[in-house]
């Protein structure tokens, strides 16, 4: 393992403030590039994306969000930002082991500019790209699926801006395709409200 892998530390990324799961509470700490601040909990945190995702699942943070939601009824409930599914304890432990080595694995794999997760959707009947399909990315953390980011397929049926290489960690992900909204926009019927694809990424 290279010395760079051992010493790798993530810095705060302003782009996090635009992500739905972070934008209501995450702020930078001036002069501290490796720190972040939760304005709901008034707490300074490590500026590591996985640590921030775990923080927003703590009881104190959820209570703070609930209090804010009561004061601002127009705010989307936190449950709309994630899809929750029960998983076995064994799967949760496996995820934790994967997270502990994620930074080293990413560094060893090289600094390629290719996005770590992307999707390409085509029509199975005519092989034409499907444009305008909403896709959401989730990551399995501590026994539940946590919302990461979302996007819409372009004219080529592709979307590759779910997560940047520097923010990526190995683990279990899933892509949620909102096919019902797509078919509604085309005035067509479908029996599937959504389609999910689960991924396990080791490198």
Automatic annotation (TrEMBL):
Top-level taxon in the UniProt lineage: Eukaryota
Gene Ontology process terms (BP): purine nucleobase metabolic process
Biased composition regions of type Acidic residues, renumbered to the chain: 79-98
Segments forming domain Transthyretin/hydroxyisourate hydrolase: 117-200
Coiled-coil portions: none
Database matches in InterPro entries: Transthyretin/HIU_hydrolase_d, Transthyretin/HIU_hydrolase_sf
Comp. bias intervals (Basic and acidic residues): 62-78
Chain positions covered by the region annotation Disordered: 58-121
Pfam families: Transthyretin
PANTHER family: 5-HYDROXYISOURATE HYDROLASE, URICASE AND TRANSTHYRETIN-RELATED
Protein name: Transthyretin/hydroxyisourate hydrolase domain-containing protein
Native species: Phyllotreta striolata
């Amino acid at each position: 393992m290279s010395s760079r892998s051992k010493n790798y530390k993530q810095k705060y990324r302003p782009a996090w403030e635009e992500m739905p799961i972070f934008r209501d509470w995450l702020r930078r700490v001036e002069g501290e590039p490796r720190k972040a601040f939760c304005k709901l909990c008034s707490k300074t945190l490590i500026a590591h994306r996985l640590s921030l995702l775990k923080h927003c699942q703590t009881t104190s943070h959820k209570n703070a969000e609930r209090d804010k939601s009561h004061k601002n009824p127009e705010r989307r409930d936190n449950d709309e930002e994630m899809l929750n599914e029960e998983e076995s304890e064994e799967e949760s432990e496996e995820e934790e082991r994967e997270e502990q080595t994620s930074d080293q694995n990413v560094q060893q794999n090289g600094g390629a500019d290719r996005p770590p997760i992307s999707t390409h959707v085509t029509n199975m009947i005519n092989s034409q790209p499907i444009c305008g399909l909403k896709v959401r990315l989730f990551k399995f953390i501590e026994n539940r699926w946590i919302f990461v980011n979302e996007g819409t397929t372009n004219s080529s049926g592709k979307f590759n801006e779910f997560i940047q290489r520097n923010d990526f960690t190995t683990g279990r992900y899933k892509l949620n395709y909102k096919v019902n909204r797509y078919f509604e926009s085309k005035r067509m019927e479908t029996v599937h409200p959504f389609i999910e694809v689960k991924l396990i990424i080791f490198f």
